[in-house]
Structure formats: C-alpha cells, structure tokens
Amino acid sequence: MGRMTATPATNRPKRVLLAAPRGYCAGVDRAVIAVEKALEQYGAPIYVRHEIVHNKYVVQTLERKGAIFVDQATEVPPGNIVMFSAHGVAPTVHEEAREGRLKTIDATCPLVTKVHKEAVRFAKEDFDILLIGHEGHEEVIGTSGEAPDHIQLVDGPEDVAKVEVRDPDRVVWLSQTTLSVDETMETVDALKEKFPNLISPPSDDICYATQNRQLAIKELAGEAELVIVVGSKNSSNSIRMVEVAKQAGVPAAYLVDFASEIDEAWLEGVTSVGLSSGASVPDVLVQEVLEWLSERGYVDVEIVKTADESLTFSLPKELRNKDLRAEAAELIKE
C-alpha cells in the first residue's frame, strides 16, 4: 500500500486502517488457555510465576477466575501447582519448584523453548553465545540461565564495542524472540563487522508473530497520520510496534492498554488512524478502540492485511495429567 496523493483533510472521510494480523499469537493463546484449563481441571488456586503474558487485562481476568500471580516459585506454598509463563524460565526455577515441593505446568512458548535448546546445544559445543535482547526481560533471563557461563547479553548495536570472546571463530548469536527485525539485524551487522565468522542460529529466532505485526504496521504507515497500538507498557513486542510505526514515518504513535487511555487531542486534524495490537492482546480490547473511534466519526474501517496466520500449539503436556492436584498434595506428605 503506497502513500496516497494528498487531499485536503477536510475533504477526506475519517477512517481506521486496521492491521491484520494483530493480537494473540499462538504462544500467547496457548498460555492463556493453559491457565483457564488448569483452573477448570484442578480448581483454584493455580499459581503462576510472573505474568502469564504481558497484558494487564489478561492478568486481571485470570485473577478473577482464581489464578494467583507471584514473582517467584519460592512464594508458592508447598503442595500446590505453579505454572511458568510464556516467556520461559531458567533451569534453576524448575529446581526451586522441585525443592519447594510443587507440581509444575510449563506454558513456555515453543518458539522460546527452541531458543533455549539452541543455547544448550551451542554451550555444549563450547561456543561463546551472544544473546541479543533487552536486559531484565523475562525471556532473556530464562534463556541466559540455560548456559550462564557461555552467554553474554548484547543490548543493541551500542553494546557491541564491549563484547569480548575467547575465540572469534567460535561465536554464535541468538535473539530474544520479541525484538524488532530491523533492530536485531542492525546489532547482528555490527557483531559481524567485529567477528566476521559469527555463526547465525539454524533458524530465524524472531517470532513469526512479531515479524508479521511489524510488517502490517509498516504497510499501513504509508497512509496513517496516527497509529494506536493496544498493548501493555511491559510488553516488549507492543513497544517495538510503536517504534516501528515512528521509524516508518508516522507523525505520531501511542501505546494504550484500553480505549479510555486515548487522548482526543491526538485526533486533531487526523483523518486516517492506524490500529493494531501486540501479540498478548485479546481482540476485545481492539474492538473497544474501534467503537471509541467510531463514536468520534471514524466509521470506515479498512483492513490492511499482510499475512495469514494458522499456526497453533498443543497445550502443555501436564494438563493431560488428571491427578496433578492429588500429586501436588502428596508432595507435602513426603
């Protein structure tokens, strides 16, 4: 979709350019359903270490159903069930759960698990692993924990100068799955300049959903005067979408959790609003924004579609264990 010939704003109908795909990815869908199924199957409470996905509305909804979110597995009383979030955890967290006499359900996104396995394999082969990602992000902490002696974090191109390795011929890069493609490749290019024999992972680690949502934003950026991304402030992929919109030349782009957070002043002089949502956002929140915009004259909705998504993941295997609650209770008798 190219940039259209300019027409006076007063003569143009107000419209919404609605990105597709948007919202839930397969990993998030799997994780949220896993919490709901666990509550249904084993009853409340189901403890969840960290937010199951980075979305305020999802967390609050699951809390009302009986999920209890904790910062660490060590906070869960013995003899209970704890679920690990879609972002993945380090092996030490599994050990903490065992020591705390807890049964676990692992809702780590399979694409994140793939990166964990790559980290383990390259560490066994004694490579230095350069993990591109943001310091403190749960996914980065989990992946780093798989091979802490072999992994060093590279938080953007500006970090490359301080990277030191044992053997420049045995270096591989891995990536946090929720980064922007452009951001990651800029860092990779800088690393390759420093380490010409840098090895790339066997498959692209940027999540398909992250790529697709960013591509849709770039596509509608040619015509949007304002972009609204629905997502939470701690959602890495949602934040990236706002950045991608700005880098693509959209005059203004904002991240909101709910329609009520939109400032009407943003709409001044705007006839085309681009709308999308992060990979952990249920579509009900996007529909509320569409309704909010419709009430203000943005009644025409044009779908900007850049990809079809049909990938699904099977639920965590632990949900097939009908006796998990009983097994958890047995642990405190041992």
Write the layout of secondary structure elements.
Blueprint: E1 15-20, H1 26-42, E2 46-49, H2 56-65, E3 67-70, E4 81-84, H3 91-99, E5 103-106, H4 110-124, E6 128-132, H5 138-144, E7 151-154, E8 171-175, H6 181-194, H7 208-221, E9 226-230, H8 236-247, E10 252-256, E11 272-277, H9 283-294, E12 300-305, H10 324-331
Parallel strand pairs: 1-11, 1-12, 2-3, 2-4, 4-5, 6-7, 6-8, 9-10, 9-11
In short:
The chain has helices at residues 26-42, 56-65, 91-99, 110-124, 138-144, 181-194, 208-221, 236-247, 283-294, 324-331, and strands spanning 15-20, 46-49, 67-70, 81-84, 103-106, 128-132, 151-154, 171-175, 226-230, 252-256, 272-277, 300-305.
Describe the model.
- With 334 residues, the chain is an alpha/beta fold.
- The chain is built from ten helices and twelve strands.
- The chain has helices at residues 26-42, 56-65, 91-99, 110-124, 138-144, 181-194, 208-221, 236-247, 283-294, 324-331, and strands spanning 15-20, 46-49, 67-70, 81-84, 103-106, 128-132, 151-154, 171-175, 226-230, 252-256, 272-277, 300-305.
- A five-stranded parallel β-sheet has the order 10-9-11-1-12, with helices on both faces.
- Helix 3 (91-99) links the parallel strand 4 (81-84) and strand 5.
- Helix 4 packs parallel to helix 5 (138-144) and helix 7 packs parallel to helix 8 (236-247).
- The longest helix has 17 residues, at 26-42.
- The radius of gyration is 22 Å and the shape is flat.
